[in-house]
Each structure stands twice: as structure tokens, then as C-alpha cells.
Amino acid sequence: MDFSVLRNLISRYCVGEENWLDSRTVYIGQKEPPPGAAAYIPQRYPDNRIVSSKYTFWNFIPKNLFEQFRRIANFYFLVIFLVQLIIDTPTSPVTSGLPLFFVITVTAIKQGYEDWLRHKADCSINECPVDVVQQGKAARTQSHKLRVGDVVVVKEDETFPCDLVLLSSSREDGTCYVTTASLDGESSHKTYYAVPDTKAFRTDREVESLHATIECEQPQPDLYKFVGRINVYKDTEEPVARPLGSENLLLRGATLKNTHHIYAVAIYTGMETKMALNYQSKSQKRSAVEKSMNAFLIVYLCILISKAVINTVLKYAWQWSPDRDEPWYNHRTENERQRPVVIRAFTDFLAFMVLFNYIIPVSMYVTVEMQKFLGSYFITWDEEMFDEELGEGAQVNTSDLNEELGQVEYVFTDKTGTLTENNMEFIECCVDGNVYVPHAICNGQILSAASSIDMIDSSPGGYRREHEDLFFRALCLCHTVQVKEEETVDGIKRGFHQGRPTSFYISSSPDEVALVEGMKRLGYTYLRLKDNYMEILNKDDEIERFELLHVLNFDSVRRRMSVIVKSSSGEYLLFCKGADSSIFPRVVSGKVEQVKARVEQNAVEGLRTLCVAFRRLSPDDYQEACLLLTQAKLALQDREQRLAQAYDAIERDFVLLGATAVEDRLQEKAADTIESLHKAGMKVWVLTGDKMETAAATCYASKLFRRSTQILELTKKRTEEQSLHDVMFELSRTVLRQRSMSGLSVDCLDYGLIIDGATLTAVLKSGPEGNYREVFLEVSRNCSAVLCCRMAPLQKAQIVKLIKASKEHPITLAIGDGANDVSMILEAHVGI
Questions:
Q1: Of 65, 306, 410, 663, which has the highest C-beta tally within 10 A?
Q2: What is the CA radius of gyration of the chain?
Q3: What residues are annotated to the active site?
């Protein structure tokens, strides 16, 4: 008898094995694994019902009353009303009860109506039709009936009903395109992949015959993190284990684009989906007016109590003499005469509280609530805020923050996609110091597409030609761009030129599309990815095929991406592109100084730059890299750390090839808007992940910085030359000395501060030499504009929180368009 299964069960249920608690097993198609596999343990998961409403029909009255009476004002009026009912008071209980009843009723109707709208939205989502594979064919059911393990068929332009793992696609390569605009605001197409062992199952019957299980982590809200493993069982073989990552997970709320249909298995359903987890437990933002009203209420309550105490004391002081204790017009009963003095004094105190309770006006709260509710509609109806391209106006998600818009003192904005259009155009590339400009004009003549302008080094030869070819091939291979050859994209006819169909590119990153299109203009065309082979057409009109072996995806920490390919001659090549700060330290040869000079010049002009490098791998190097990547990808615990270590070990000893420059144009009227905000007395901060030079050039173009602005730098480069302590206090002395010298003309001073992410981390950590936060706040308060570059998403939120918590407690507004801006938007008083 095999006791291994029994031992595993005991350890899981009795000992509480950590890996078991942190993961779940999903049986695809609700089918038990074949005999000899791990024991089948059915698990209970929530259904796919989404609940965004707060109330039900049964709990609305008690829950709403409980929430309303948690407010200080409502609770106060309730106490006054109850006092009037219990004791003999000079005023009728109706005087307090009727206004209180009106306030409670109006607020309950408003909140009930808003919750009814949420119920309607929930019902429309929960009852939308979904195709599920059952008994070898697709059957239509309602979304809320989906269960974990069901295989779902999703067609083009449909929204994913829950979090799914992609099994197969109508595309031969097992990929699909997805837009996640409802999740993170990014409208570009993202590519997701099916594992090689399941992408061949393309019909209902084939999918029904699939025997597999998925082990994955328990639900958590991070949109970009997913760790799992799929075990595919075949007839006579051991199960094949394949890693699953975020590139295999399709999130609820995203939409399938430019793919006819896909098959996917439900992993997280209902309130366990990542979208639902991101909307849960978010603290309700309260406006400054509401907070100040509560503060004033406490002050007036103290005044009221004081008045009641003083009047009670004066009454008993007046009645101290026997002839005044019981006047002829107010004889007391025998019961009142025998009542203890303490009880009589307390009753009189409550009576005075009721008599003077008008000092706190109940009608004020009704007025404020109605003004907020109606004011939100005026924002929605504002014609000047209507976007004709989108056909949409401003959308108010909460009416509690309307009055904050008129009190904003600090505006925090993202750069890419917010100040700029995020519509990239390839400008030039530099290979070993030789600058290539597509269709460049030189001496009045238009050069051919592949011509170069030798700006720095014009030495010809085989070495230059070899690096030139490698550079162009690197940009044609090192990307995640997909080629679209169909007639329509999103219902719009595209891809036709002079009556003939032509290909165009789709990617999650506009930079990648701009680079691949730039290479096409320079003579190297990326054709397609088919059966794991990437095909490019070189400038001699010859098709070259490279086998795509591994993709080392881009992430915001490494700030680079790489691919490992095998050429037709059997040579292994590692191509890498990324930010200059992440490439240059890993370069061992190449014309670094010439390329670095060109990169810095382009950055000053406001262009987005990337550096390109390569490395030849021996067969032993490749096998070692494969082993590192496979072990890291199959790990269920600490997969991200292991992948980072593997990438770090592989991406080294590069030969620098060159750099690229891409332009991201400013949004229409961005400069005029920032200038108007400055005139209104608001301070604008730009928080971006871009390099300092590029971001600074954008700030000058958008009039955030003027030519007369005195720039103060607080960057890693400067803190390497001086200690952070010296730099901080030198900036502080500069600002304070200038302010004291200027006297009354302090408003005429124009300072601009630039700080990077590395220095911000050091500033936020209080060292033994002192607390630099206050010094940083003092410097930044005296600057009309601040640029924070090389910022991680969490650092953006830290900046906003730091300003919010300063002693002035200013009202803050954050505006962004991407997932990396969500934490900043949630932290600010007002988020756009």
C-alpha cells in the first residue's frame, strides 16, 4: 500500500503545510486527475457573483441607520430628541425629531438610490451571457454561475468574466491581444501567451479531452503578479509541468481584441478576482469641509455644554434662599421635592441642553448634502469639459469631493501619457557614434532611408558594417511586437496601401512600435513570429530567420529587456535594450563615450532614449542560462526574486552597439494649462520614471520651468560628489538667504527643484545626522515647480503623502493615466 498520499493529506490538514496554505489546486474542466496522480481534493470557492453594493433589501434600514448615526451631528440630534421624550423639557420633541427625521430620510433616499444603481450594474454584469465548454460543446450560461475550473470560450471584443489562464487561441502561435483600459487606463494592446502543451487544443472536443491541473497562489490584488504551474497529464507519461506567470493570466475587466476566440480556464472568480480585490478595503475619502464641520461641531458642542452648566449653576445659586426655591407661579409636586438634588440638577442640565440646542443647525447638513449631490451633475453637464474625440464628458465617481477642487494647492502629474501624448515617433539612432536619420535632409537633398549622417565617427570598414547589421537586427528581434495583417483592427479598416494589404504593428508599448517602424524605414523589416521563429527582411531584400529561445521581459526595476535567439548558422545571440543607466554598467566594450554623448544630447532635447547591446553565447553559456531560467520559472515560492537573480547573471559582459531616440509630443494646450495653474497660485509637481534630462526638457517645453527659473538639483550624481547632509543644507541656505534678501519681493523669485528616486529614498530615511524631511519640505515649499524623476510607483505615493502630512495640510490633486499612477491617485485628496 502506498502511504505517500495519506502522509500528504495528514501533513496538509493537520500540520498545516505552508505551501499548501499559500496555494490552490484547480482541476481544469472540473475533471479528476488520472489514477496515480495526486489525490483529488475538491475545494470550495466563491461563485462568480460581483457585489459592489453596500446594502441588501433586508439590511438597508438597520445598516444605513447605524452608518448615519455614526456621524457626530446625527448622533447629537438623536440624543437631544431622546432627552426631550424622557424628561419634562421646555420645548416639544417635534422641534428636534422632525428635522432629524427629514435629514435621515433625505440621506437614506440619496444613498439608497446610489446603491440601487450599483445593484443594477451588478445585475447586468452577473447576468451577462458566458460560453462554457461542457460535454464537448460550448453551452451558454450566466456569468454568476461560473465556477473555478470551468473552461470558458471568449470571443473578440468580449470582456473576460473572471480571472482566466489562457489555454489556447484561434491564432496558431497561441497568443491573444488584450486591452486593459478599465483596469489601469492603458489602451494599448498587450500580448498574452498559452503554454506550448495546451495551445494545440483549439476545438470544444479537444479542450474537453484535456486533463490538467493548475497550482497557483491564493488571490492577491497585485495586477502584475501571478505565480503558478500547470501540470498536463498525458496517456502513459508523467505529467508535464510548465510555469505560469502574469503573461498567461487574463484579468476580469480586460477585453479581447483582434483575436477571433480563445479558450481559458477560470482561476479566480467573483470577489476573489484581482479587479474586485483592488476595489475592496479602499478608505473613503472625506473632504476638508466635512472634516472642518466636524471640528466646528465639537467646538459648538463644548460651548453648548458650557452654557448648560453655567445656567444650571446659576439656577441653583438663585434658588439657594428658601423664598426663591419655590415661587408662587411654579409649585413643585411632592415627588419632585423628595427627588435628590443631584438628579434634579442633572435633569435641569439636560433641559438647558435642549433649550439651547439650536446653536447647532441641523438644516446646514441637509444643505451641504444636497449641494454636493447636485454639484456633481453640474460637473458632468459642463460643456467645456466634454471631449469630442471620445464623445464623453467628465465623470464624477463621488460627490463628496466637489468642493476640494476649488481648494487645491498642489497638483501632482505624471509625464508620459498625461503631459505628453504617449504617441511615439522614431527620430534617429546612433550606431558606434554614427547617426542614422530616416529620410534625412542633408544639403537640400533627401537621403535614402538607410543613409547615415556621420556626426562623430565616420571611419568605414567591416567592423562598422558588422555592428550596424547587429544593431538593426537587435531592434527587429528584441521586442514583444505583434504583426497585424488583417483588414480591420477594432472595426477600423487599416493595413491597406494602394489597394494591397500591408502589415502593421501592435504592442503594449508605443516605444516598441516606433522602434520597429523606424527600423522598417531604415531598411530592416520585421515580418512575423511563426512557430517560434522570428523573420526579418534585411536591406538586401533577403529573409533572415532567428529561432526565439527565451524572452527576458522588461520590468521597472531592471529597466531593460532581452531576448536569446539562435541564428540560421547556429550562433546563440543575446540582444538587450534598456535605459542607459541599466545598460552602461554592464558593458565591457564598444564606443561608450561616443554613444553616451549622443544619448545625453538627445535627452536634453526632450527625446526618449534607449541603449542597445549584445553578447555572443557559447553553447555552454546558453545551457547554463536555460537551466537558470527554467529553475526560476518553475518555482512557486519567491519566483520574482529567483527570476531577477537569473536575469542579473545572464545580462552581463555586453558589447555596446548604439542608442535610439524617440519623440513623445506634448498634449494639446498642456503648456497653457500649467501656466494658468501657476497664475492661480498652485504648485505643480511632475512625477515620472523617465531620466532627468528627458523629463527636464519636457518641463521646459510645457512651461513648468522657465528659462529664468533657477534650477536646484538634489540628485544621486550630486550626492556622490558631496554628502547628502551638505547638499540638503546648501540648498536650504540658498533658498532662505535669497528669501531674506528679497524681502517683500519674495513672490518674484522662481525656483525649480529636481530630485531623483535614489535621493528621495535617502531623504525619507532619517539618518543620524538629522531628519532631512523637514529640510526637503522647506526647500520644495519655496519652489514654484518640482520635477521628481526616476520615480517608482510607491515613491510617487510617498511624495504625495509627505506633502499631505506637512504642517500646512494642503489640499492635493493627482492626475495620471497608467497603472503606475494608481497609488499616487489613491493617496491624494482628489484623483483624476
A1: 410
A2: 34
A3: 414
